[in-house]
Write a structure and sequence with these properties.
The protein is built from 13 helices and 14 strands. The chain is an alpha/beta fold and 400 residues long. The chain has two domains: 246 residues, 3-Layer(aba) Sandwich (Aspartate Aminotransferase, domain 2), CATH 3.40.640; 136 residues, Alpha-Beta Complex (Aspartate Aminotransferase, domain 1), CATH 3.90.1150.10. It has a seven-stranded mixed beta sheet, sandwiched between helices. The chain is globular, with a radius of gyration of 22 Å. 46% of the residues are buried.
Length: 400
């Protein structure tokens, strides 16, 4: 059995090469040098059109997009921002960076927000960041209803969710702002980079200036005579600090040809995820939680829970899979894992989340790129099943 290369990202389309070469010959890598239609500006228009949003702002990372979203909401210093307890450290970090206080809520065994705990913690919060962690969508109907009733804006951390829909609507367009990542292991890869989308002219104008649109370079963000956007820029000229979180033209040149690949990557990623999940779910020791009914996912990796194993068994399973060539991380048992909330020692306030902690101690994560073939996915599933059997005993003996 030959295992695929699960580490590398998908190759950058050849279409990017000519534009990269042109930029390198010109040295024109700064988004504001060109009078109009710089690669970053074109990327923003194309991404907004892809998502059906009015505005997009490309920045240096998804973390930068989250930070700018919070600052653009004009929250007071010390505002409390509710986030799920299962997310990447960049999310609470962006909240702290914005001079706000992260408030964590419980997440269940299906990796989604515990709605009872969310509702209990929402009063007193002035914003919410919903992390669709690893592309798993929480109950957005309930979240938006609760937040709308209390006048709390919702930011979607859709770093892992480009291409996912909820009731047919694209994730990232449900809240006030949607933030996406172009980091190497995301659906679209520029190594680093991010983008935010919104229909709110006032919010995007503030975000553009905050991102580093000095003097009147914000004019290069106005297309087609958008009077509301132009008026918002004029209101905030010279009134906001410049954090210089811009994306370069070179990164945009890498990203733009990949937008045409999104639909195919979503289709193949969903096929691969569901193919392997069906095999793992036949094991008594592994379980891939079902998606929620309104959700059509765009998975870029595979998560599953280990059942009936001790900590020692779990670690032995990880070693057995690694010996066969598949790297598995257990969020709660991997040393200093940035997705385990107890490692976020920079938080101004800490909360214990027993349900989330218990989930993280058995929740596994492995890469499952969209570029894999079904046969390669079978090889991955076989490794995981064989590793579990090595630790727990043959499947045929289970229950006898």
């Amino acid at each position: 059995m030959t295992l695929p290369n699960m580490h590398d990202a998908e190759a950058i389309p050849e279409a990017a090469r000519a534009e990269i070469d042109r930029l390198l010959r010109s040295g024109d890598l700064f988004r504001y040098t060109a009078p109009q239609d710089a690669p970053v500006a074109l990327l923003e228009r194309e991404f907004a059109a892809l998502m059906g949003s009015r505005y997009a702002l490309a920045v240096s990372s998804c973390s930068a997009a989250l930070f700018l979203s919070l600052k653009a909401l004009d929250l007071p210093r010390g505002a409390r921002v509710l986030i799920p307890g299962f997310t990447f450290a960049a999310v609470p970090s962006s909240v702290v960076h914005a001079d706000c206080i992260p408030v964590l809520c419980e997440v269940g065994e299906n990796y989604r927000i515990d709605m009872d705990d969310f509702a209990a913690r929402l009063p007193g919060c002035q914003a919410v960041i919903v992390s669709h962690m690893r592309g798993h969508t929480s109950d957005m109907d309930a979240i938006l209803a609760l937040c709308d009733a209390q006048g709390v804006p919702v930011i979607e951390d859709a770093a892992h969710s480009l291409g996912t829909t909820w009731h047919g609507q694209k994730i990232g367009t449900l809240g006030r702002v949607g933030c996406f990542s172009f980091q190497s292991y995301k659906l679209v890869n520029a190594g680093e980079g991010g983008i935010l989308i919104t229909d709110d002219a006032e919010l995007v104008a503030r975000a553009v200036i905050l991102s580093g649109a000095y003097e009147h370079t914000w004019r290069k963000h106005v297309a087609g005579g958008d009077a509301a956007l132009e008026a918002a820029f004029a209101r905030w000229q010279n009134k906001l600090p410049l954090y210089n979180l811009r994306l370069s033209n070179l990164a945009a040149a890498v990203i733009r040809p990949q937008l045409d690949e999104v639909a195919r990557r979503v289709r193949d990623g969903r096929r691969n995820h569901d193919h392997v999940a069906a095999q793992l779910n036949r094991s008594p020791w592994m379980h891939v939680p079902e998606k929620l009914a309104p959700e059509d996912r765009a998975p870029d990796s595979l998560q599953f829970n280990l059942d009936g194993m001790s900590d020692a068994d779990v670690l032995a399973f990880v070693d057995a899979a690694a010996a066969r060539g598949v790297k598995v991380q257990v969020f709660g048992l991997s040393t200093d894992n940035a997705r385990a909330f107890w490692n976020w020692q920079f938080l101004p306030e800490t909360q214990d989340l027993p349900r989330t902690r218990a989930m993280l101690m058995r929740a596994c994560d492995t890469r499952l790129p969209a570029r894999l073939t079904p046969a390669e996915c079978d090889a991955v599933a076989t490794v995981l099943l064989d590793a579990a059997e090595e630790v727990m005993g043959p499947l045929r003996a289970y229950g006898t």
